[in-house]
Amino acid sequence: MNEKLGFKPYPGTFNLLLDKENVERKKLLKGNKALKVCSDGFCTGLLFKVSVGKLACGVVIPTVENYPDEELEIVADVNLRQKLNLHDGDTVRVIVFL
């Protein structure tokens, strides 16, 4: 994943809960060109370059059965919650680069 994103991800992901409108946007992503992720010990998935604020990040969409549509996983080289001073319920803007 490091070579695909251009950074070494901070351990763990920052998970967002999507509203109905953004669940539909996430479904549209699955039809676009994405980087494929396959790592020992982890499920396969789709990877998209994104930004959160001014931070370069990645969105990982696991390709596993029954993965929740309303969940979005973000990886970054820092702890996003701490870096952006985020709390449960905060709104986060994610810009996807296709």
Walk me through what this model shows.
The protein is of the alpha+beta class. The protein has one domain: Beta Barrel (Elongation Factor Tu (Ef-tu), domain 3), CATH 2.40.30. Helix content is 18%, strand content 33%. It is built from 3 helices and 6 strands. Strands 1, 2, 3, 4, 5 and 6 form a 6-stranded antiparallel β-sheet that branches. The two termini are 17 Å apart.
Secondary structure layout plus pairing:
Blueprint: H1 2-5, E1 14-17, H2 20-29, E2 35-37, E3 45-52, E4 55-62, E5 71-75, H3 80-83, E6 94-97
Antiparallel strand pairs: 1-5, 2-3, 3-4, 3-6, 4-5
Query: Which percent range fits the helix content?
Result: 10-25%
CATH fold topology: Elongation Factor Tu (Ef-tu), domain 3
Let me know the largest β-sheet.
6 strands, antiparallel
CATH architecture: Beta Barrel
CATH class placement: Mainly Beta
Specify Rg, calculated over alpha carbons. 13 Å
SSE order, one letter for each helix or strand: HEHEEEEHE
How many individual domains?
A: 1
Structure annotation, total helices? 3
The average pLDDT value, as a whole number, equals 87
State which percent range the strand residues make up: 25-35%
